[in-house]
Automatic annotation (TrEMBL):
Keywords: ATP-binding, Membrane, Nucleotide-binding, Transmembrane, Transmembrane helix, Transport
Membrane topology: Multi-pass membrane protein
Record's keyword annotation contains Nucleotide-binding: yes
Chain ranges of the ABC-2 type transporter transmembrane domain: 230-410
Organism: Podila minutissima
Top-level taxonomic group: Eukaryota
Domain ABC transporter: start-end pairs: 21-84
Gene this chain is encoded by: ABCG2
Compartmental location: Membrane
Name assigned to this protein: ATP-binding cassette sub- G member 2
Record field: transmembrane: 248-268, 288-308, 328-354, 360-383, 390-409
GO cellular component: membrane
């Protein structure tokens, strides 16, 4: 998706998440409404971007993902830490966008950790009363100091002191704390509630929810907005568009295929049948070995694509955008096309340079079968490997073992 613009990303999601019964005009209107609602008009023609090149910012990208969910007009929008990993400015922009959605009448539920817990020897309290609390205990925050910085320094000094100093400090702190509770009896209410929960359990909340789960079970089935054929065609179109917008990768692959074909063809050129049949057959076998080895190795480039696209697939499948079978068929079509065109050119060059026997059609069929066989372990490993590096190590090992036990053509 990094090569798609913001508008193209939302359009792709709308075609998958909105039903086929909805007209294209209504879908376009829904897309533009979401773009305007999330204030994405000024970046709608900018590519999303990713690791390869810089696109929109992280906050803008998060708003695009929120827009994808809004396309289907959900009754409730669930967001899990929507501001995590952002700077204060990016978090503010995302929060303002979510606030505007809630103000417009949408139901928004989000988990947002906006509390800082400073823990020292198991004592906790409210952030608003931290300064006055420690001031009553004799630890007054200096003038023009940030309260949070002062508390961190106070806790750090407490942890780094010697054992004797800690003992004296603990006794002094305990005495001051007991005096503080005697003058503020309500301060111990929180502790009493925690002791009650530890002894008798919580009232309501998770306890009530656990009983509800035992009594009621719900069967959940995913209903897709579009048919499998539409999903396959859209995913195929997106993958081909991504390939077309990476011309340097295709040009580099084409150069590798042509150069290696010329090298192999030059080394084994002019092998005609004659009196030295054994030597010629041996040379042809060696040439075929190099050809098959190259075709097996060149497919290794598909491994990083599987690991990178896996996260996108898991997110979109979890959102109910398409079936697993549709993604599999689209991936098979795209990979077969992309890894069959250049090998076919490679075979044509080596076939005429070396003078291989038999019709050229046989070698086309053999190449197509061989490329698909080579891509099978790549797909299997790419679906399970933690990252591309681990997948490449396993793939090289499997490929080496397969070559060692494949025998030798003679």
């Amino acid at each position: 998706m990094e090569m798609f613009t913001v508008l193209e990303t939302l359009t792709f999601a709308a075609k998958l998440r909105l039903p086929d019964s909805m007209s294209n005009q209504d879908k376009i209107a829904r897309i533009h409404a979401v773009v305007q609602e999330l204030n994405l008009i000024h970046i709608k023609d900018i590519r999303v971007g990713g690791a390869a090149f810089r696109g929109i910012s992280g906050g803008e990208k998060r708003r695009v993902f929120i827009g994808i969910e809004l396309l289907s007009s959900p009754s409730v929008l669930l967001l899990d830490e929507p501001t995590s990993g952002f700077s204060s400015t990016g978090a503010l922009n995302v929060t303002n966008a979510i606030k505007d959605l809630a103000a417009s009448g949408r139901n928004v539920i989000l988990s947002l950790f906006d509390d800082l817990l400073l823990l020292s020897q198991g004592k906790v309290g409210k952030a608003q009363s931290a300064a006055s609390y420690f001031e009553n205990l004799g630890h007054e925050c200096p003038v023009n100091w940030n309260v949070a910085d002062y508390l961190l320094d106070l806790f750090s000094l407490h942890q780094e002191s010697s054992s004797n100093e800690k003992s004296v400090s603990h006794e002094d702190f305990a005495l001051k704390y007991s005096n503080y509770l005697s003058t503020n009896p309500q301060a111990s209410l929180t502790q009493l509630l925690k002791e009650h929960e530890n002894k008798y359990g919580k009232i309501g909340g998770e306890a009530l929810l656990s009983k509800f789960k035992k009594e009621y079970t719900t069967k959940y089935t995913t209903e897709y907005a579009t048919i499998a054929l539409t999903q396959t065609l859209l995913i195929t179109q997106r993958s081909l568009t991504n390939l077309a917008r990476h011309p340097l990768i295709f040009q580099a692959d084409a150069a590798i295929h042509i150069i290696f074909a010329l090298v192999v063809g030059s080394l084994f050129s002019g092998l005609k049948d004659g009196p030295e049949m054994d030597t010629i057959s041996l040379n042809k076998s060696i040439a075929l070995f190099f050809i098959t080895s190259f075709l097996a190795t060149i497919t290794f480039a598909a491994m990083p694509q599987f690991t990178v696209e896996r996260s996108v697939f898991l997110r979109e499948r979890a959102a109910g955008m398409y079936r697993t079978s549709s993604c599999f068929m689209a991936k098979t079509i795209v990979e077969t096309l992309s890894y069959s065109i250049l090998p076919a050119i490679f075979i044509v060059i080596t076939y005429y340079f070396i003078g291989l026997s038999g019709p050229l059609t046989y070698y086309f069929i053999l190449t197509a079968v061989f490329v698909n066989v080579a891509l099978s372990p790549i797909a299997a490993i790419g679906a399970h490997a933690m990252n591309a590096e681990v997948g490449m190590v396993v793939l090289v090992l499997i490929n080496t073992m397969a070559m060692l036990f494949s025998g030798f053509i003679y």
